[in-house]
Every structure is written in structure tokens, then in C-alpha cells.
Amino acid sequence: MAGYNLKEVMNKPERLSAGHRMCAGCGATIGIRAVLRALHEGDHAVIGNATGCLEVSSFMYPYTAWEDSYIHNAFENAGATLSGVETAYRALKKRGRLPENENFKFITFGGDGGTYDIGFQSLSGAMERGHDMVYVCYDNGAYMNTGIQRSSATPQFADTTTTPVGKMSNGKVQTRKDLAAIIAEHHVPYVAQTTFTKDFKDIHIKSEKAIYTEGAAFLNVLAPCPRGWRYETSEIMKICQLAIDTCYWPMFEVDHGNWRLTYEPKKKLPIEDFLREQGRFKHLFKPGCEDLIAQFQEEVDRRWEDLLFRCSR
Amino acid sequence: MSKKDRMSGNEAVAYAIRQVNPDVMPAFPITPSTEIPQLVSTYIANGEMDTEFIPVESEHSSMSAAVGAEAAGARSMTATSSCGLAFMWEELLVAASNRLPIVLTLVNRTLSGPININCDHSDGMGARDTGWIQIYAENNQEAYDNYIQAFPIAEDKRVHLPVMVCQDGFITSHAVQNILLEDDKDVKEFVGEYHPEEFLLNPGKPVAVGPYAVSNYSMEAKYNQEAAMIRSREVIKEVAARFREKFGRGFDFFEEYRCEDADYIMLIMGSAAGTAKQAADDLRDKGMKVGVLKLRVFRPFPAEEIAAALSKCKAVAVMDRCESYNGHGGPLASEVPAALFMNKVYTEVVNYVYGLAGRDFTTETAAGIFEELEDVVENKKQVRQCTYVGLRSKEGQ
Description:
CATH class of the largest domain in chain B: Alpha Beta
Distance between the termini of chain A: 25 Å
Structural class of chain A: alpha/beta
Largest sheet of chain B: 6 strands, mixed
Helix content of chain B: 40-55%
Number of helices of chain B: 13
Shape of chain A: globular
Radius of gyration of chain A: 19 Å
Structural class of chain B: alpha/beta
Low-confidence stretches of chain B: none
Shape of chain B: globular
Low-confidence stretches of chain A: none
Mean pLDDT of chain A: 97
CATH topology of the largest domain in chain B: Rossmann fold
CATH superfamily of the largest domain in chain B: Thiamin diphosphate (ThDP)-binding fold, Pyr/PP domains
Oligomer: heterodimer
Number of domains of chain A: 1
Strand order of the largest sheet of chain B: 10-12-11-14-15-16
Number of strands of chain A: 10
Mean pLDDT of chain B: 97
Strand content of chain A: 15-25%
CATH class of chain A: Alpha Beta
Radius of gyration of chain B: 21 Å
Largest sheet of chain A: 8 strands, mixed
CATH architecture of chain A: 3-Layer(aba) Sandwich
Number of strands of chain B: 16
Number of domains of chain B: 2
Order of helices and strands of chain B: EHEHEHEHHEHEHEEHEHEEHEEHEHEHE
CATH topology of chain A: Rossmann fold
């Protein structure tokens, strides 16, 4: 892998073109563009996409924002659909029906609803079968396309439209599913969790590894949603930085079974710093809710310790 | 040169799959179609074919993967039964609306519940409005022949629709019967090569599949899909004619068995047509003029042709191996009378429900139905529509 040069990387031609209809400041599109910049020039790609914000906003007939071939099938089957495409590639190559010198890479995008929940079986099957593809989850922690309903990726206590805060409710009851770890336990060659950092190096390097490692790979990208999380749109980079500095969203990779932290905050910040910025956690800062924040902190600490242990082996 | 052999319906279809050697086949096991992916996997393991087989984790994923593979430019197919077809229902619609010429070999089995593994047509009939062409077989020979014809129909540029080829679970899929098998070379030649116009893996020409379309565009997409279904009628006939010319057998939309001068006709699909034909022969021996119209193509529905075929008889028994739970009879009971009425043919129709979940349908039952038709016409016997035949008691105890 060549040395990372931000300017060079940012000057690559966009493969998701302007003019799509995603919200201003949407984390998903930032993530998708970052992943696609890791494709080597000259390589073709087929992009898969689960139903969600990204799909309905980027491929509205008769327009598409995708420079590469693209397939949307349904909500729960992005993994299976792209495994069909990837298998077709192997079949047609084997039978001499595609040019020898043209390479295709297979990348599919799904939100957390289409990945953690309804598309979980399809994803697990595709990973277990080992198709040469990358599944990228843009995790914004709720069903944003249908209007901010909770998913199994939604953090505890988040105020969503199906876990609304009220006299009898502090938001979502359950903690979130650790999908990157679950996919790592499929023992696929490459799994990583990442988000946006100032130099976009972490996501770039992980995307490149995921795309160019043979076999199934999974990337979990924290992709904040200003509407669902209720923060100032311009604050997205700050939100991401707080997510990693509080260890709410650790950045790590599992490369052929080796767990490795790719970022360790110099000073682990308290979880309040991440929660305070977001309207969905506003109720936690009312007097008398200190124990809820403490409970949140405890869960973050427990998971962080667990990750450190995995990475120390 | 044709070769005589003995095979079950599943073996016959698997043999045809080996001959066609499609590019990609995702599949998931379900009784009674499981043997098809098993046999294909064995052919692959022994180097007798080189289709890329995807052992998916569900039927929903088998159709999802088939959609992906077909969109990518690969000739793709799958096999399933019953709940498996029900589970892929959403994807059946996606396949058809994306105009992907996938072939599905369906081994008909009842839908749950109660869970039961035996034959009726509720699975295929449940998918009757998903935009798939549906062709039903009476026996292993027709299952084999229909599979070979499926790709040329589906992939024809006038059609571009998926095709479901159906055979009756266990009765056809597992019973060993005589069969004529064609040479690999002849089958390959008949099916031809697949060269789609647009596909995902075309390096010079990327394409996007599966758009969101607003109301300004969606209705035209649906209209064009129906137009393709209408155009498939001529293609089905052409392919059947080409098949007859090359291999010397087969029918278009249906087979008319001893219908020419028949007073009473039984309209039926699948393996029970054989039983009905036997009953017709027995009654013909006794001097009763009866015949059988065996429907081969259910989608597109050959309404005009059915009306013409039934215009001269005195009464028709419309046989449903499926319940619609609508208080108004099975699917054929809805569509056949509508076809007659719309074409101004006012033949007497009586609807019967038979053979659900593998209940036997006997020549005695079939003969009794012909005799009842005569009673209705000659003696004005009042018969309840949608009568169940073969129940253990009238009250269904």
C-alpha cells in the first residue's frame, strides 16, 4: 500500500457524483465517497445498495448519481444480491465471456437497519460463503429513511420515534448490537470499524484493505445523521472525533484474525461529551438522570476493556 | 438422437439443467425440490457441468442472488417448493419488474399450515400475479421439455420476463416414469447462448438496476411489463413449434385430449390430467363423449383460446388444486368463467377443489365429476360451486 497523501486522494475523480438528493451534511454520502476513493483508478466496480436513504436519493429514475454499475434490489438482501453479482463475474470470467484485462470490484452499502436488522441473515450468509466483496454499513444508528425509528444499532437511551422519551420512558431500553465483532466471528479475512477523522486516513486505508483483500470483508462506518441525532449540521467532524475519543465508537480492524486498535485516544473523554452534543440524548441531562449517564458510561467502559483485551492477544 | 430412459421428474429436470449448464444457480433445500440442487451439485462435483452453484442461506437469498447474477449478465436459475417460493415472493416481483429472464423450476407443494410436504398448486398459484410466466407439467417428460423451452422464452427480446416451470411434488418429482432424453448437443443448440443487451459487468457501459421511480414513471414501467407478458404469448407458441419440429412433441398453451366432439370437458393442470384422461377413456368406452383440457400455460392466461376450446361443449368442470379462501372458488374458478364471459361463451361451468395437500385424486372421482356434469345439463341438477371432492366426509371431519 502506497503512502497516504490526503491531497492526492481528495483529487481523485468522484464516483458518486454531485446532484444526488441526500441531505446537506449527511454522514452516509461522506462515508460512501471516502470508501470509493480507495478504488484504484482503472478498476471497475459494481455497487450494491440496500433500500434506504442512500438508494432512494441517489438513483431516482431516470437519473443516477453512480459512475459505476449499480444494483439496488430490496431492503434485506444487499448481501445476497451482491453475492449473485460476484458469482456471475467468476462464472463469466471462467467461461471467457468477459475481457481478461478488465477488473471488477464488488462493494455494497447498507444502512444499519438494512445491515444489523432486516439484512442480517443475508449479510451473514454472504460473509460465511466468502464472496470476494466488501459490505459497507453506514451506521447512523436508526431507520432514518422512514423517520428515525430505533434499530439494533441505536444506542441505549436514544430518543427515536419508536423509543420516544416520555413520562414513562427514557428512550431506547436496550444497548446496541456489536456488529463488527459479530462479523469478525465469521472469520472472514478483513473486518474494520471506522469513521471520519480530519485526514480521512483511517477510513481510506481500511477501505483499500477491504476492497483489495481477497474474500469477504466488512466495514462498519459511523455515519452521523444530523436530522436523527439532532446536532448542528456543520459539527459532524466534531461529533465523529468525540465518538472515538470517548471510545463510544472505537476504531479497530480484524485482519486475518488479528485484532488491532487503529486509534487510541491520548485521553479517554467522558461519554457526556459525546452525548451532550446531540438532541436525541437531551433528556439525559435533566436533573436526576445522572445514573443513566453513569450506566451508559459503564457499558462503554466494559466494551472498551473487552476490545483492548481482544487486541492485546 | 433421442434416448429412452427411466427417471423421476426431479432427475429429469436436473438432467436438463446439466445439459443447459446455466452460468449461476443459487438454491436452498426444501422438500420436494431438494433433489434438484443435490443432483446439480453432484454433476458439478463430478465435472459433468461447471455452473457456479451458490449454497445460499435461504430462498429469499436464492432469488436475490439470482437477481444479482442475472442483472450482472449471467444466465441464472433456481429451484424451490412451497414455503420456499412464498419466502421469495418479494423477490419474484423484483425479478419480473427488472425484466430479468431467470428460470425457476418449481416442484409444487402445498403451503403451510398445517405443514405438509405433499402436492397441490397453492405455491404456484400464490405467485400467479408476480409477473412470471408459468408453465405446468403433467409428467416427467413435460417437466424436462418445459425446462428446455424456458430459457428461449424468457430471454427473447420481446419478452425479457422470468419463467417458472412447474411439476407436481412427489407425484411427478419422485415417481419414476419412462422418458425420452435428447442429446446434449441438440439441447444446447435449442437453448442457444445468452447475450443480454445491458448488464452490470459490461466494462464500457455501466448500468444502474433497480431504481426508485416516482409516480410519473412507475405506471409506464408496469404497463410495459404487462405488454411483455402479452407479447410472450407469440413467443411461447413459436418456441413450442420449434421444439415440436426438432423433438417431435409438445403443446402450446394447452393440450386438448378427446375434446373435439366432447359434450363434457374437464379443465385441469398438472399430474391429475393423466388421471382425468384415464377417466375420459373409460367413459368414452361406455359411449359418453368426454374430454380433458390440460392447461399447460397459466401465465400468460390464454383466455381467448380457452374460450374457443370450450365454446362447443355442454359443460365444463374447472378443477382447482388450490383454495383461494375467498368464498368464491380457486384461481381457475375465477379466471376460466371470466375468460368465457369476456369472450361471450356461455358454457355451463362447475368448479371443483381437489387434491389439496396430496389428497388422492382417483379415476373414480374424475368419472363421477363427468357424470355430475351430465346430470347438471340433462336433469338440471343443482350443484354447489367450489365443491370439494375427496374429503373424508361432507363436513370435512
